[in-house]
Design goal:
The protein has 257 residues and is an alpha/beta fold. The chain has seven helices and twelve strands.
Length: 257
C-alpha cells in the first residue's frame, strides 16, 4: 500500500531522498532551511552520514569510527528517517519500494524524489576481485580490514613455513586513486606498528601492492611524476626493514587470486 500523509499534513509536499551519504545528507539540511513546510524523508539503511575520506584512518585504527559518523536524528531537525533499502521506484504512481531491516516492504509516496544512493566499490574489470577482494565503502568494511590485517599477521606468527608466512603478510590493494593510495599508506604504518607485537615476524616486512588500471598513482589529485608499471617478481623475498611500500601497478589483465 502506498503510504501518504492524511488530514492537514496531506497538503504538505513530500520530498523523499534516497541515500544518506554526503549528497543526501546535505540535500536534506539545505531543504530543511529553504522549505520548512515540506515533509522530508530519508531512506537509508544506516542512521548516520559517514565521512568516507577518513575510512583509511579508521581501518588503520587511527580514528575512532564514531568520529566520522554524523548522526541523522541528532543533526536534522525535521527530516524523518526511513530505515531500509530503496529497491524500486514507480515513476508513474510516484512511490518508492523500501525493504526494511526486518525483511518487510512498504511503499513510500513522494511529490519530489532525490536519488543519491552513493557509489559502490569498483572492480576495474580485474578477474578474481569479486571472488576474493573486500570492498572499502563503509564503516563495517573499514573495521573488517583492520581485523583482517591483524588476523593475517597472527596466523603468520603462528606458522613455521616461511613461504606461508610471506603469503599471509602480502596484501594487495586494487585501485590506486585517493582511497587505494591512502589505504596502502595507512596499512603500511599499521602493519609496521603491529610487527612490534610479533617479534618472530621482525625479519619480514608486510608487502602491499597497489593494483591499478593506469600508469599513475592518484593521477587526478596531483602532477607528481608517474610511477610506471613494473612486473612483480613472485620469487623476490620480502626485504627486511625499510620505510616504503612496494609499488607494483598491476594491469587489468592480471587476475586476483
Amino acid at each position: 500500500m502506498r503510504e501518504r500523509s492524511s488530514g492537514a499534513r496531506a497538503a504538505r509536499p513530500r520530498i523523499v531522498i534516497i541515500g544518506a551519504g554526503y549528497a543526501g545528507y546535505h540535500c536534506a539540511r539545505g531543504l530543511e532551511r529553504r522549505l520548512p513546510a515540506a515533509d522530508i524523508m530519508i531512506i537509508s539503511p544506516t542512521d548516520y552520514m559517514p565521512y568516507l575520506s577518513l575510512l583509511p584512518e579508521v581501518g588503520a585504527g587511527i580514528v575512532d569510527p564514531r568520529h566520522i559518523a554524523v548522526s541523522l536524528p541528532a543533526t536534522l531537525r525535521h527530516a524523518r528517517l526511513v530505515p531500509g533499502h530503496a529497491i524500486g521506484a514507480d515513476l508513474v504512481n510516484r512511490s518508492v519500494t523500501v525493504a526494511g531491516p526486518d525483511g518487510g516492504r512498504r511503499e513510500v509516496g513522494w511529490d519530489r524524489l532525490v536519488i543519491a544512493p552513493g557509489s559502490v566499490s569498483r572492480t576495474l574489470r580485474l578477474p578474481g576481485v569479486l571472488d576474493h577482494a573486500k570492498g572499502f565503502k563503509n564503516l563495517a568494511e573499514a573495521l573488517y580490514l583492520r581485523d583482517h590485517l591483524l588476523a593475517q599477521m597472527e596466523q603468520a606468527d603462528a606458522s613455521d613455513d616461511p613461504a606461508q608466512r610471506r603469503e599471509l603478510c602480502t596484501f594487495v590493494v586494487v585501485g590506486a586513486g585517493y582511497t587505494g593510495t591512502e589505504v596502502a599508506a595507512q596499512g603500511q604504518l599499521f602493519t609496521r606498528a603491529a610487527l612490534r607485537r610479533h617479534p618472530r615476524l621482525s625479519p619480514l616486512r608486510p608487502a602491499r601492492q597497489p593494483a591499478a588500471g593506469g600508469h599513475r598513482l592518484v593521477q587526478r589529485h596531483h602532477r607528481a611524476p608517474p610511477v610506471r608499471p613494473a612486473r612483480p617478481d613472485p620469487a623476490r623475498p620480502l626485504r627486511a626493514g625499510g620505510r616504503r611500500a612496494d609499488r607494483h601497478l598491476l594491469p587489468h589483465r592480471r587476475a586476483a587470486a
